[in-house]
Write a structure and sequence with these properties.
alpha+beta, two-stranded antiparallel sheet, 7 helices, 6 strands, 43% helix, 11% strand
């Protein structure tokens, strides 16, 4: 009698043999691209340098003014970009609920066309609506391009290029953790740029949201320990 793991391995091997002679996926059957991660999909990037990318699709939402990430969500399969906007805005609203702010306007690329009916109460602007946009909205639409370098930093500097967590839930956790690391670096840069006054306002706001009483001695001790500890050493690679 074969064990459960042996049966799964043989089923994967049979699937690889069957798909090796096919150029396209069969209807309703996805190809197996990674032995250890069956949830990996192939995404068409449409770029000459990297025409295809293998992994999980992740949506990123950021603020319009300061490039702070307010939403990072991984999606199972390879859904159409427009079909992910509702869930992306839902996550951003949940993460910002303590601030009392709810996203009402979204500036997106052309992959999100035709989804206005699926997102009631949200004004969706993209280049396809250029004729109906006001001059101010056209100016703000140019800010959408700022998300491209943020995605690059998430991949190169914050580990989003490769996920070491298992399964679709691991992909979702990995996306949120990478975005949290980006925001922490963003906060440290703002503290270094604006000084202790910005740190004081930030600390008071966090205490107000959490319902805590400010403890200045503990706050200064924690900041000093982070400053003197320095960045963690990066492992050497061959």
């Amino acid at each position: 009698m074969l064990g459960e793991r042996t049966k799964q391995a043989l089923a994967k091997a049979a699937q690889i043999v069957a798909q090796s002679g096919q150029r396209k996926n069969e209807a309703g059957v996805s190809k197996l691209y990674a032995w250890h991660a069956p949830e990996v999909v192939c995404m068409d990037k449409g770029k000459s340098r990297t025409p295809y990318e293998f992994g999980a699709k992740v949506g990123i939402a950021m603020t319009l003014q300061h490039n702070l990430i307010v939403g990072a969500r991984a999606f199972e399969g390879n859904p159409f970009d427009g079909h992910t906007l509702r869930e992306q805005l839902e996550q951003a609203g949940i993460l910002m609920q303590d601030t009392g702010i709810k996203p009402t306007t979204a500036y997106v690329d052309l992959g999100y066309r035709g989804v206005d009916g699926d997102n009631p109460g949200v004004d969706i602007n993209h280049r396809g609506k250029a004729k109906s946009l006001t001059p101010q909205e056209k100016k703000l639409l140019k800010r959408r391009q700022a998300i491209e370098p943020i995605i690059g930093h998430l991949k190169e500097d914050h580990g989003m290029e490769r996920c070491h967590l298992k399964g679709a839930q691991g992909d979702r956790l990995h996306a949120v953790l990478c975005a949290a690391g980006y925001n922490i670096r963003w906060l440290l840069r703002m503290i270094a740029r604006r000084g202790v006054a910005f740190l004081r306002r930030l600390y008071l706001r966090l205490c107000e949201v959490a319902g805590m009483r400010p403890n200045w001695r503990r706050m200064l001790r924690d900041v000093a320990s982070i400053a003197f500890r320095g960045p963690a050493p990066r492992p050497a690679t061959a």
